[in-house]
Amino acid sequence: MSATTTMPAVVIAANDGTTYMMSLAMDKCPTDAVAYFSGIASSFHNSYNEDANRQERIRVWNLYFDRFATRTSFGYDIGCGSGILACELARRGVDMIGIDGASNMLSIAESSAREQMLRNVTFQKHRLPISDTTSFRIADLIISSSALEYLDSMPEALGFLHRMLRPGGVLIFSVSNYDSLSRKAVRVVHAWTGKPAYFGLLKQFTTVEDVCAVLRATGFTLLAHSYFAKADRINRTLGMVMPERFASNMIIVAARRNQCI
Questions:
Q1: Which of 167, 187, 240, 251 is most buried per CB count within 10 Å?
Q2: Strand spans (E) along 66-198
């Protein structure tokens, strides 16, 4: 169970004289990402059928699979959640292991794989980052969708992924875009209301330039990057008048592991 924090509240008087209590943050602010996502596993999984940004995410990831996963035999999905992407790669013939710390997410992932009769994907429970990777099979491909941003250190995260990937292997990951104007606005809203709850768990908001610097420092070479998560009305409107780096909530990156750091 995650720890919670109770925040102070203020009294607001409406025009009709009625008073309301407004918390400066949510009464119960989650402090553990694993516990939080395990608790919302079902709604998170179902959101891929309902949320335009989630559906855009699948389209973007599939484009990157088409470009960078065509010669892959074995891979990891780090922070696999409910297994959407791990199962997609398994359908493409890649032997996959999905790794996540959230038990309820893994239960959904295993059930989904069984329903699709996918025998080349399994799931393991580990908290991230994984400090000791010596027992893990070396992969051709590692993917990580919006998981690394919940970790304290991006260099540490890319460091353990480097150790799990063969020289010349490909890493594809997505992170929150620091330049997104709508995300900047949501950060202000979260500071006052505590909503959306997951926002307080995010540790990494980054730019493409910063990602490139960390990739170089940890033994990777950038192959491609794209902006996405711009399907909502606010970002669609921003995208009409601004570059996509300001009108997209996420960055997806593909990189190749160098022979050595």
A1: 251
A2: 74-78, 95-100, 121-125, 139-145, 165-177
The answer to whether the pTM exceeds 0.85 is yes
pLDDT digits (tens, 9 = 90+) for 2-41: 343 444 433 333 333 333 333 333 446 788 999 999 999 9
What torsion do the CA atoms of 145, 150, 151, 153 make, to the nearest 10 degrees? 90
Is 4 a domain residue? no
**Token pair of 109, please?**
């992932």
Name the domain count of the chain.
1
Instruction: Kindly report, residue by residue over 100-138, the tens digit of the pLDDT.
Output: 999 999 999 999 999 999 999 999 999 999 999 999 999
Q: Which two tokens stand for residue 257?
A: 């592991």
Contacts of 15 (CB under 8 A, 6+ apart): none
Q: Which domain holds residue 140?
A: 30-257
Q: Who contacts 227 (Cβ-Cβ below 8 Å, separation ≥6)? A: 177, 244, 245, 247, 248, 250, 251, 252
User: With 90 as the cut, is the pLDDT of residue 52 above it?
Assistant: no
In a domain, 9, yes or no: no
**For residues 258 and 261, what is the distance between their CA atoms, to the nearest angstrom?**
7
CATH number for position 152: 3.40.50.150
Q: Are 31 and 2 in contact (CB under 8 A)?
A: yes
